[in-house]
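Practice set, problem 2.
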Amino acid sequence: NDRSEEANEVMALFNRKLNQQKEYVWYACYGSNICRQRFMIYINSCNDNTPPVEDRPYEFDYDMYFAKKACNWDNGGKAFLDLSKPGHAYGRMYKVTKEQYEQIRRCEGSDYTQHVDLGMVSGLPVYTFTDTKTNEERTLPSYRYYNVILQGLRECYEGILDDAQIVQYLNSRIMNEQAYKIAETVRRNRHYLTNAELMERTGYDADTVISSVQWLVEKGMLKQDGRSRQQITDLSAYFYTIDHPCGRALIDAMMEAERIQ
């Protein structure tokens, strides 16, 4: 027993010295890694799979947006930072070793090769990564990706932001208020609606409805009924939501998030 206790003490001392030699950084994230459960998948793939020493909310001075396509997220858009101008995004930072950070960065792949130094917090550097350029073409995320980010924001900002603020923030990064109202109205109807009916139900003018419908059709959220020959801009043209992870399922997830506030 004495030898066993001595061995345990030696091992504990060894581990303390090893930890003292580790170089730590803050990894700041703004997408699915905000969810700790999701982030631990990356940690468990590292050579050192020790969990983060600490994590905290972190607010970026840049906007978050969705672009490109992620095959592991139903070909929906992925989260990026817009470094071209000041903005704001809610995120989370994890205290990890520099080696873990570099391995996580490599795991994210070729779309996240831009290393970003965000300064210092509590004496440690804060790092993140994004694409090498701002993507002008926006892509809707899948409902699964949306829900993972939403879960992460709720767990990280509990007691800091209320649910309405969290949902409003995330929904606004996907589409503007007018486009969301149009998509929600079509979805609630369960069938098709014309541009004229959308004007009546939302109170928006023709230009707002038509421009929003055109954007939603372009992004794959809405589809014009092919049996008619009207132009997309005709008030009698009618539309319905498309059944895929970035279409009807995404708008359902956004509506559900607002409902449970």
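Problem 2, part (b): a different protein.
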Amino acid sequence: ILSLISFFIPKNLKINITIVGISILFAFYLIEGFLTIKPKNDRIAIYNNITGKDFDKRTKWQFYQDLKKEDPNVVVSLPGILLSDDNSIYFSLSGLSNRKTIFCNENGYYSIYNSDRYGFNNPDKEWDKDKIEYLLIGDSFAHGACVNEPNTISGNLRKLNKNINGVLNLGMSGNGPLIELATLREYFLNGKVKNILWIYIERNDLFDIKEELRNEVLLNYLKDKNFSQNLMSKNSQMQKILFEKLEKQIEREGTVGFNKFIKLFLTRNKIILPLMSKVFKSQSVIPADPEELRNILKLANEFTNKNNSKLYFIYLPRYERYIQKSNNDNLFNYKKIIKIVNSLNIPLIDIHEDAFKKHSDPLSLFPFRKGGHYNEKGYELVAKTIFKTISELEK
């Protein structure tokens, strides 16, 4: 169409349009290059100054290739995804099992953990404990993003009391509340679990719900209290399908970074789309109604009570709350979420109110005072607050 139109445009105008177009495109790629390099350079300089060590600048793909030379069985962490075999469609809720698993790098090093028999971030022996003191449900913050296993929330809970019963972490990166409900139902150990820690991260989870409600497999957990994919009994079958999925992903990874740059991934997601959403108020960037969370929590609480366990709602704050120095109760629907939890009579542990807000420097709990997940100190403070609060409530 553009070629046809060009026949009717004067030559000088065509030249001017071409120059403007190339200039705009060049400017966009300059911005993309800046967004790609600048954040990493900030973290590299800070990390080198603090530790005297070199920041690991490899991409996850490069790190995987290097580590695979030492351990052929190494894998990368996979989020929950739709899988299919010849007869059925499943939604996986865990990663590859019994593997050295590469996670992420926000603190200068790639976090690695040995996955358990079902693909979660636990020492495998936790599944054999007679009692589970804490069972964690959540997304990447529960999963333990970008720190090694002993420094995750679950790892710190184990360190706080060495005589404690088992601590089982079922958190997975990319999870939202509906996936977490599904995980609770699929991997719950009947008669063993004392406390369930529902890890909620502000803002993320309401956006996740909106996407999850479009998934037919996940919707079954809302519609039918007895629905199950029987993932524990089908673990071997699921692992085979997951590994095939990983191999296909690895084939694509070699060009992923370049493709993202060509497609202006960072420029679109950090500048263009936010501007468009403000102008057009796009529904795609509006989170789910908090009442959708109520429905999911109600089912989780009923399931928990039915199995003689205790559900705790752990509210985790994001970096944006502290960089903006905002204690606004309306930020990320904070007040509405707290009200919903209280109305369901679910005990609340508010990490913002009980820990981070009281901290003299909450930004120090994030990697290099930048956005992302928590650093080792942040996860430790979360675990200590949970442990202390529940211990006091149980007296």
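Answer key, part (b): Strands lie at 75-76, 82-84, 89-91, 100-102, 112-114, 132-137, 166-169, 193-201, 310-316, 348-350. The chain has a mean pLDDT of 89.
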